[in-house]
Amino acid sequence: MSSTNGIHHLAIATQDIKAQIEFFNDVLGAELVALYWMHGVEGAWHGFLKLNDSCSIAFVQTPEIAEIERTLGVTHAGSGAQPCAGGAMQHLALNVDTLDDLLTMRDRIRSRGITVFGPLDHGMCHSIYFAGPEDLTLEVATSAKPIDGRAWIDPEVVELAGISADELARYRNPEGYTSPTSPVPQPDFDPSLPWQRGFVREVYEALIMAPDQVITERLSENIPPVEVQD
User: Fold this and answer.
1) Does residue 181 form part of some domain?
2) Do residues 102 and 126 make contact, with C-beta atoms less than 8 angstroms apart?
3) Inside any domain, residue 2
4) What is the domain range of residue 212?
5) How many domains does the structure of the chain reveal?
6) Is residue 119 assigned to a domain?
7) Shared domain check, 152 and 139
8) Residue among 119, 117, 165, 158 nearest 142 (CA)
């Protein structure tokens, strides 16, 4: 396969991982499946709450996060209709399979004392809206059938976004990819392209220029914190 096929996990920063686990477990019914020292990040905890066997909501807690102020319109949107900084999570929408499931989830959320409004019928989906700890903007949604791009790609917005007809055709039919017989070499570092700027640049360049096998051998940590006896 040459394209991604879902979300493995979405990582959210938190200053209180227990509060987030409590909320997603009790209010939304997500099972805690991992809570451990985050690999390669000193002082960080990592927690995973299962949505299905290949999709989780993850939280990261480090001591520094408590010192970072949450500011609506900057770090957080505050609602599904408000802005925040580019690259930040504007809102998180969780899926259920049917409208009945959505109404059941609405009742569950309210039974925990959390206010929620909806469902709203968006045509492509029905959604309910509420908030989580630390000003998370949350949604639960369901689609009766796959989204039909013929109906939901607005020509006016396409034009305003500067998307040409050829580009739209490409976006609607992504190009496949077949891996060559030999691995593709790492490209030369170009700081004008996206890179993980949380690293010191020299450290990042050293990481990306090291052979893949060396990175795998030196940085992998694959032993769980608890030994399970089957």
Assistant:
1) no
2) yes
3) no
4) 187-220
5) 4
6) yes
7) no
8) 119
216 token code pair: 């795998």
108 burial level (CB within 10 Å; 0-12, 13-18, 19+)? middle
Tens digit of pLDDT per residue, the chain (230 long)? 678 888 999 999 999 999 999 999 999 999 999 999 999 999 999 999 999 999 999 999 999 999 999 999 999 999 999 999 999 999 999 999 999 999 999 999 999 999 999 999 999 999 999 999 999 999 999 999 999 999 999 999 999 999 999 999 999 999 999 999 999 999 999 999 999 999 999 999 999 999 999 999 999 999 999 999 98
Same domain, 81 and 139: yes
| Secondary structure of the chain in HEC code, one letter for each residue | CCCCCCCCEEEEECCCHHHHHHHHHHHCCCEEEEEEECCCCCCCEEEEEEEECCEEEEEEECHHHHHCCCCECCCECCCCCCCCCCCCCCCEEEECCCHHHHHHHHHHHHHCCCCCEEEEECCCCEEEEEEEHHHEEEEEEECCCCCCHHHHCCHHHHHHCCCCHHHHHHHHCCCCCCCCCCCCCCCCCCCCCCCCCCCCHHHHHHHHHCCHHHHHHHHCCCCCCCCCCC
Question: How many angstroms from the chain centroid is the CA of residue 219?
Answer: 23
Q: Does one domain contain both 88 and 122? A: yes
Per the domain annotation, does 226 fall within a domain? no
Distance of alpha carbon 98 from alpha carbon 126, whole angstroms: 9
